[in-house]
UniProtKB/TrEMBL annotation:
Pfam families: Ferrochelatase (PF00762). Fe(2+) binds at residues 188, 281. Keywords: Cytoplasm, Heme biosynthesis, Iron, Lyase, Metal-binding, Porphyrin biosynthesis. Its EC number is 4.99.1.9. Involved in coproporphyrin-dependent heme b biosynthesis. Catalyzes the insertion of ferrous iron into coproporphyrin III to form Fe-coproporphyrin III. PANTHER family: FERROCHELATASE, FERROCHELATASE, MITOCHONDRIAL. GO terms for biological process: heme biosynthetic process. It catalyses: Fe-coproporphyrin III + 2 H(+) = coproporphyrin III + Fe(2+). InterPro entries: Ferrochelatase, Ferrochelatase_C, Ferrochelatase_N. This is Coproporphyrin III ferrochelatase. HAMAP family: Ferrochelatase (MF_00323).
Length: 363
């Protein structure tokens, strides 16, 4: 594989965004939930999570660090393409990033998101954001061509980075016997209807869960082999929202910790493989809330760091960018189990509320 990003002029990191000051919290939450039917009570509760940290989410600083790490890796490979940044829900907004890209002379952008998995919230919604932003700047006469890296959770490099983090955390465990230790892989809960329709729409669905389960089981097997242990791994969920009447993926991490404690578990290793950085879902929902649950039921909680700016993760993301560029040039790219297309198939991970234009897909 050639070490180049041709035909792209720049890379754009597309992320969720988060508030950076107390007065930004409510405007941010209103943007996130516009038209979603999230009860006000839930918004106020989530606002409290942010105020608990002075109104500042860690996510933007983490993205600044990730961009610096990507820059360093690109420099090491002598790839001179800039790494730009745009968010869905907070400054720097995506449409402004597109205006700046165009003003700097860039015409063809390669987008990578901070979301690794397949489902409406983690893939198509970002594709809709791209369609909206491209349409907004088109009215100003700005034309850009945009491609995207496909969901990267199935990449062997993503598994390797997460495995490394889990093994490092488990080496620090004291001598708790295998049957007293639970290995909990955590991700964001989503509505079950969103999971059922995640994937190419060939009748199989559940791709969000299946990608997590595949990664969790690969990490469990490999970590057990490396550490000479026989731990059981399982997938649990955090950050449920939406009305109580709507089913979301379960079990919730807190409920599962309580059950495990009652069954004799003394240590839970919590690995947030669903997230790429220690943002609010991690520092509040796991480090604050799940930690309180664990303390209350007398279980030790060991939290594995997310991949963040781990060198194995950053290298893999740059590999994914280089491979996407090769694909755009019509060259062959490495295959691996579970690989997702860079251009999504029609009906993949549909918007269940309302069909809307989305870029980087065949529909
Ligand atoms: C799959 C998924 C990811 C992972 C993929 C990805 O990373 O994109 C993710 C990430 C994130 N979610 C985040 C924050 C929020 N998510 C919400 C609400 C929701 N998330 C959902 C799903 C996901 N969310 C869903 C189905 C909803 C229901 C409403 C809706 O369909 O939109 C709400 C509303 C209030 C609430 O009800 O919690 C907030 C504030 C932050 C920022 C953290 C920070 O500030 O550090 C990040 C990275
Ligand atoms: Fe979310």
């Amino acid at each position: 594989m050639q070490n180049t990003l041709d035909p792209y002029d720049a890379v754009l990191l597309l992320s969720f965004g988060g508030p950076e000051a107390p007065e930004e919290v409510m405007p941010f939450l209103r943007r996130v939930t516009a038209g979603r039917g999230i009860p006000d009570e839930r918004l106020e509760q989530v606002g409290e999570h942010y105020h608990h940290f002075g109104g500042r989410s860690p996510i933007n600083d983490q993205n600044r660090a990730l961009i610096a790490a990507l820059r360093a890796e690109l420099d090491a490979r002598e790839i001179e393409r800039p790494v730009l940044w745009g968010n869905r829900n907070s400054p720097p907004f995506l449409d402004d990033a597109l205006r700046e890209a165009h003003a700097a002379g860039h015409r063809r952008l390669l987008v990578i998101t901070t979301s690794a998995y397949s489902c409406y919230s983690s893939c198509r919604q970002y594709r809709e954001n791209l369609a909206d932003a491209v349409a907004a700047v088109a009215e100003e006469g700005i034309e850009l061509q945009i491609d995207k890296v496909g969901p990267y959770a199935p990449r062997p490099g993503f598994a390797a980075a997460n495995l490394g983090r889990v093994v490092d955390a488990m080496r620090a465990l004291d001598g708790a016997p295998d049957d007293e230790v639970a290995l909990l892989f955590v991700t964001h809960s989503i509505p079950t209807a969103m999971d059922e329709t995640a994937g190419p729409g060939d009748g199989e669905g559940h791709l969000y869960q299946r990608q997590h389960l595949a990664l969790a089981s690969a990490i469990t097997d490999e970590a057990n082999r490396i550490l000479g242990r026989d731990l059981t791994g399982e997938l649990v969920f955090c950050s449920r929202s939406g009305p109580p009447s709507q089913p979301w993926l379960e079990p919730d991490v807190n409920d599962r910790i309580e059950e495990l404690a009652a069954a004799g578990t003394t240590t839970v290793v919590v690995a947030p493989i669903g997230f790429v950085s220690d943002h609010m879902e991690v520092v509040y929902d796991l480090d604050t809330e799940a930690k309180e649950t664990a303390d209350r039921v007398g279980v030790e909680l060991v939290r594995v760091p997310t991949v963040g700016t781990d060198g194995r993760f950053v290298t893999d993301l740059v590999d994914a960018l280089v491979e996407r560029a090769a694909e755009a040039r019509g060259e062959a790219v490495p295959d691996y189990e579970g690989r997702r297309p860079s251009v999504c198939e029609p009906g993949c991970c549909p918007n269940l509320r309302q069909a809307r234009p989305a870029l980087c897909g065949r529909d």
